[in-house]
Structure formats: structure tokens, C-alpha cells
Design goal:
- This protein is mainly alpha-helical.
- It has 12 helices and no strands.
- It has helices at residues 6-18, 22-31, 34-48, 50-53, 66-80, 82-92, 100-116, 122-128, 134-146, 150-163, 168-180, 184-195.
- The chain is elongated.
- It starts with 5 loop residues before the first helix and ends with a helix.
- The mean pLDDT is 91.
């Protein structure tokens, strides 16, 4: 029988919190050596109340599995307290030595949640991401439709075309945007194709 390592326990502990399985997490916490139980208890506190515990006062720069802890906390907080999550991220993002991938995941989460809630900063958040995927571009498209930013919408639709095959909805909105910015002949051609 294979011995369970501390790394395996941490991996399972993180997965338990990701699935909101607090009972399993509590059980796993007891399996860690006493020296790591304090970090595991911090995980529990951040999981339960990220708004209170996602602060440098509680989370040291050398905290065990720091990136996963911070990411989990911001993902949880953004679900119910988006404005507070954004405020905390702006205040503390440079305090912790996070990996670039973790920073991107947190910013992406905040950007997508902002777009869903039509936060005034949503478009800025989405455009600031280093990498645009289908979900972020789709969110940007919806915001631009809502605010009738036709020129920007055309750019976003072009970017979307590079990550997925253009669907009928995208095709229609491309024609509509072209029509609104004065490219009526090109818009009519698309409308004709859609009508056939």
C-alpha cells in the first residue's frame, strides 16, 4: 500500500475546498503535521469568510500553497461580493508573490463576474487581460452590444472568429454593426446570406 504524502493531502484538501466539501477538508486537515495545520486552518477561514481573511495581515508571503489559497478566496468572494473582491484585489495584488498564471486566473474571474453583473469597469477588466479566450470575448461582445459600441463590437467579433467558428448570431451582429457604422452594402450582403 502506497503511503500518503503531505503533498497528496494538500492536493486533496485544495480539491475538497474547491468542491465546498468542508467536512472532508476538516478530516484531511487533521492528517497534516502540526507545523502545517495552521496554514490549513487559514484555508478554512478564507474559504468561509474570504472578505475578512484575504488580507496581508492574515496571509504571509510564504504561506503554504499561497497561489491556490488566494485564487480560491477571490473566486469565492467574487460570487457574492464582487465589488469587495475587486477592491481587495486592487489593494493587495502586489503584496503576494503570485505566479503569473494565478494572477491571470483571478483577473479573469473578476472580469467575467463584472461582465455578468454589468459592472461599469467590466469592459476595462476584460480588455486588460493578457489572453482573450472564447468566454472573455463573448462577455465583451455582450457588453458592447448592450452599450451599442458598434466599431468595438466588430473588433471583438473578429477576435472571436480566431478562437471559434463564426455562428449565425455572430454573423448577424457583424452585419448589424457594419450597418450602424455606415457599411450598408457589406451589411446587406450578410443579411442576404442569412436570409437564404
Amino acid at each position: 500500500r502506497k503511503a500518503i504524502t503531505q503533498a497528496m493531502i494538500w492536493k486533496r484538501l485544495i480539491a475538497a475546498y474547491d468542491k465546498n466539501s468542508v467536512t472532508l477538508a476538516r478530516y484531511l486537515m487533521k492528517k497534516l503535521p502540526k507545523t502545517q495545520q495552521k496554514a490549513a486552518q487559514l484555508w478554512r477561514k478564507v474559504h468561509i469568510n474570504p472578505a475578512q481573511y484575504l488580507r496581508p495581515k492574515y496571509i504571509a508571503k510564504n504561506t503554504h500553497v499561497l497561489d491556490e489559497l488566494i485564487l480560491n478566496g477571490f473566486e469565492r468572494m467574487s460570487r457574492k461580493q464582487l465589488d469587495r473582491a475587486i477592491e481587495k484585489w486592487k489593494a493587495y495584488q502586489n503584496h503576494w508573490p503570485l505566479k503569473a498564471e494565478t494572477r491571470y486566473k483571478i483577473q479573469r474571474t473578476l472580469a467575467l463576474k463584472s461582465a455578468i453583473q454589468f459592472n461599469p469597469e467590466a469592459e476595462q477588466w476584460l480588455k486588460s487581460l493578457n489572453y482573450q479566450d472564447e468566454d472573455t470575448l463573448e462577455a465583451l461582445k455582450k457588453l458592447q452590444l448592450r452599450s451599442q459600441q458598434w466599431g468595438s463590437l466588430l473588433n471583438t467579433l473578429n477576435q472571436l472568429k480566431s478562437v471559434r467558428e463564426e455562428n449565425a448570431s455572430d454573423f448577424y451582429w457583424r452585419a448589424r454593426a457594419m450597418e450602424k457604422i455606415g457599411l450598408k452594402d457589406q451589411a446587406d450582403n450578410i443579411y442576404q446570406i442569412l436570409a437564404d
